């Protein structure tokens, strides 16, 4: 039997200093190498723990281990999405094409969408995420909040755009000023990537 695969930390599609001045090299390096790496490592350890228990036919506290596994794995998945939906050199551009049309249709304007998305990110209780998603059954976009990595998340909803508002994402650069970090996020949004994600969902 082949050896079980494990989760791995994705390589960033840019250098650690490339997102300055919006995200510093130190902030990005710690966020990626320490925090994201920790979610990867812990998810793998929990898989090992479950495999060992099955092999030895020993008991597991399923409620506890699955809650922890959900948190760690969701952290890994959301961070992987986050790294890919930001990039250097954006300078506050806006979506084009199908994604722009969908945002205009659903929110009235790009500016209205940005306002609602920023408010969602700012008002997440404690640590969490703001996410632009798509509700296929009713053919409309929606903004959702995810507390921690896995509370309030709706199963099977695809992510078009995600913003990490855990303090570990911005504290070195912005201290406790989450609102300023959210403002700076728009200088980094990779709308081409967001458009690709949207088109995969609707076509």
In short:
With 203 residues, the chain is mostly helical. It has helices at 25-56, 62-84, 97-107, 110-122, 171-174, 178-185, 191-202; strands at residues 128-135, 140-147, 159-164.
Main features:
single chain, 203 residues, mainly alpha, Helix Hairpins, minor pseudopilin epsh fold, 51% helix, globular
Describe what you observe in this structure.
- By secondary structure, this protein is mainly α.
- The protein folds into two domains: 25-84, Helix Hairpins, CATH 1.10.287.990; 97-202, minor pseudopilin epsh fold (3-Layer(bab) Sandwich), CATH 3.55.40.
- 51% of the residues lie in helices and 11% in strands.
- Strands 2-1-3 form a three-stranded antiparallel sheet, sandwiched between helices.
- A hairpin with a 4-residue loop joins strand 1 (128-135) and strand 2.
- It is globular and about 55 Å long.
- The mean pLDDT is 94.
List the helices and strands and how they pair.
Layout: H1 25-56, H2 62-84, H3 97-107, H4 110-122, E1 128-135, E2 140-147, E3 159-164, H5 171-174, H6 178-185, H7 191-202
Antiparallel strand pairs: 1-2, 1-3
Helix pairs in contact: 1-2, 3-7
Query: What order do the helices and strands follow?
Result: HHHHEEEHHH
Q: Give the mean pLDDT.
A: 94
If helices are DSSP runs of H or I spanning 4 or more residues, what is the number of helices?
7
What best-fitting shape do the alpha-carbon axes yield?
globular
The CATH fourth-level homologous superfamily of the largest domain? Iron/manganese superoxide dismutase, C-terminal domain
* Low-pLDDT runs: none
| CATH topology (fold) name of the largest domain | minor pseudopilin epsh fold
Major sheet: size, sense and barrel closure?
3 strands, antiparallel
- CA distance, first residue to last residue: 38 Å
Structural class determined from secondary elements: mainly alpha
Q: Classify the beta-strand content into a percent band.
A: 5-15%
Number of domains: 2
- Helical coverage, percent range: 40-55%
